[in-house]
Amino acid sequence: MKLSGSEIIIKTLADLNVEVIFGYPGGAVLPIYDAIFKQNRIRHVLVRHEQAAVHMAEGYARSTGKVGVILVTSGPGATNAVTGLTDALMDSIPLLCLTGQVPTHLIGTDAFQEADTIGITASCTKHNYLVKDINDLESTIAEGFYVARSGRPGPVVIDLPKDVQNAVSNYKEIKVKSMISYKPAKKAKISNVKQAVDILLKSKKPIIYSGGGVINSGVKASNILTKLVNYLNIPITQTLMGLGAVSAKNKKFLGMLGMHGTYEANMAMHDCDVMLCVGARFDDRITGNLKYFSPNSKKIHIDIDPSSINKNVKVDIPLIGDCYYVLDMLFKELKQNKSKLNSKSIDKWWNKINKWKKKDCLSFKDSKETIKPQKALKVLNDALKGKDAFITTEVGQHQMWAAQYLDFYKPNRWMTSGGLGTMGYGFPAAIGVQIAHPKKPVICVAGEASFLMNMQELSSLRQLNIPVKIFILNNEYMGMVRQWQEFFHGGRYAESYTDSLPDFISLANSFGIKGIRVTDPKELNKSIKEMLDHKGPVLMDVCVAKMENVFPMIPAGAAHNEMKLSDKDDKETQTAEGLALL
Amino acid sequence: MLTDINTHTFSVIVDNKSGVLARVVGMFSARGYNIESLTVAEVDEDRNLSRVTVMVTGTTMVIEQIKAQLERIVPVRKVVDLTNEGAFVNRELLLVKVKAKGERRVESLRVADIFRARVIDSSSQSFVFELTGSADKLDAFIKLMQPLGLVEVSRTGAVAILRGEKALLAK
Ligand SMILES: Cc1ncc(C[n+]2csc(CCOP(=O)(O)OP(=O)(O)O)c2C)c(N)n1
Ligand SMILES: [Mg+2]
């Protein structure tokens, strides 16, 4: 069967079970759009900006575990996608991004809408390909797909010159030939697993610290991690990326750790004698000052990416492999081992932790006059109980509060830009999530400033008419920036006031979308219910206290046991060393 | 010690495709690692493989990171830290142009002879010498040629190979 390159591209994607492409047309991808027009196996979702297409694909991928697929034109289409690709690289999200390219004979001539897409995206993709021969299309797309989702997942770009799209050839059945150069490990060395178990069982103050690797490894990994935690009766804390792997309901879960983590989680990390890190990477927002990070613990590190081992923190036992497989090995070894954890020591450890918990570090001073952002999220959390909701966020204070005050009971329910911290991520990501889960509640917890960064997607949302809820915690400030200026720059609020905001209700209405505003704490319950009960999309403007700060906070340069717990806590927030850090 | 700074020589076998070298070099600059020298050439036409030899300095932790980061690059097939692997030999190639007359011209020939450098071009006013060897030897040669009329240097980075019968890739 003779097909054009474009038809081959679309057929290959369909044969790889791709259901949806997020994209935006342009000259260099018109033949592919033509091929999309002529078929009905793959759905196309039209965005209003290519960055949003990538974030939508990320939302789709993170909530399903599948590869998110994007199609953009050459030049500006490709460069607009770069932020999204970088975001996906940092958070290990599987994406396949197809970019149009000028015809092969024009490459290098500064042709109209030519950009060096391969060069530009080399450092923000896991891998990229330029296809110069129509006969390489199927195998390259299939390989790119495999690379994106295997090992440590990540974004892959395939650059497609227009003449290749227009050429004609036979369709070849796709098969991913086993790659010689790229073979991610699944299982860890058994000798290391045995050593890890020995260390773990001898511990008196163990803790598990898990991250996004568990989510990426699939539901099976979250299940076995939960079993392990329950079996050992030891505390677990999860990173911003890892929330939901072990349910918030689980009594062993101490809350999130890190810069805005809970007191008990950070204190336990500091004090533990054995740390089992599962699919997390000792990021600086987690460790605080490396010099003082968990000084007296032996560290066991499960990671699929060998380069994560000893990158920031020297560990004692590396277990390189997929979280599910390694946890499974670990659990089997644990059960076979004759020795058990000393339950007296573990009880003592829990007593200590329970004392830290008594600080009630997430308590805040509520108000009758203004809506506290924390309160708004608590009410939202209660309203979502039992509804299996999916949450995305933008970046800033609201993101940290959402992580602190919302409960996640399952993996893949929480999508936030962790590594790159991309404002503008949350809203399009929510659209991607809703595409994948049409019947589930999907809420984007947003800040007003972040929302402005991709608000053109209101148009996409209207066109799709899907019931995404945008929950803006509107403090009229780039709150996180303002908080740092308050703490570290003498309260000089340089350019962090979000001036000239639109009337969000009129804005929503102008797109034919329902808008709700709430300013009175007494109305909060009712308004949130109204939002959730509405069948279509809603933009909700929650006018919250403007000067609220996120606590607890580990000041930059400080250690885990040096948290600042409230505005009244007079702990130094500014150290000379800290100022130089971020 | 973990904080000691050492120089390591890596052999990196990569698929010989466009863009691969850019990815390898880009990784070093993006992560702030120092490259002392780097050479690359195709070494196996049938299997379409190139070999990169790269010399880097860093602490043990950094050297381990470099190895892991190289292995992460999708078209990289094999990475061997020759310095850790065992004894290996390495060579650089140097071309030096010396412009001199009279006594200095004779002296430059004498030095070249001691170093076993070859004359590969000569005119009434100049010589081009070719010398292979370790970086140290090449440095010493350049130093001696400097006062004798050295006007131009061209040299490669190191290429290296393990001693003994062991091969990096099975044939
Ligand atoms: C694209 C981008 N630019 C700048 C920043 C730096 N930044 C981090 S948080 C923040 C303010 C966010 O304000 P808003 O969305 O209103 O959230 P809030 O902190 O007020 O809850 C800024 C500017 C960023 N993270 N991303
Ligand atoms: Mg704000």
Molecular structure report:
The complex is a heterodimer of chains A (582) and B (171). With 582 residues, chain A is α/β, with parallel strands linked by helices. Helix content of chain A is 38%, strand content 16%. In chain A, the strands form four sheets. In chain A, strands 3-2-4-5-7-6 form a six-stranded parallel sheet, with helices on both faces. In chain A, strands 11-10-9-12-13-14 form a six-stranded parallel sheet, sandwiched between helices. A six-stranded parallel sheet of chain A has the order 16-15-17-18-20-19, with helices on both faces. The mean pLDDT of chain A is 96. In chain B, strands 5, 6, 7, 8 and 9 form a five-stranded antiparallel sheet that branches. In chain B, strands 2-3-1-4 form a four-stranded antiparallel sheet. In chain B, helix 4 packs antiparallel against helix 5. The radius of gyration of chain B is 19 Å and the shape is elongated. Chains A and B meet through strand 6 of A and helix 1 and helix 2 of B. The structure holds thiamine diphosphate and magnesium ion. The site of thiamine diphosphate has 19 residues of chain A, from helix 16, helix 18 and helix 20.
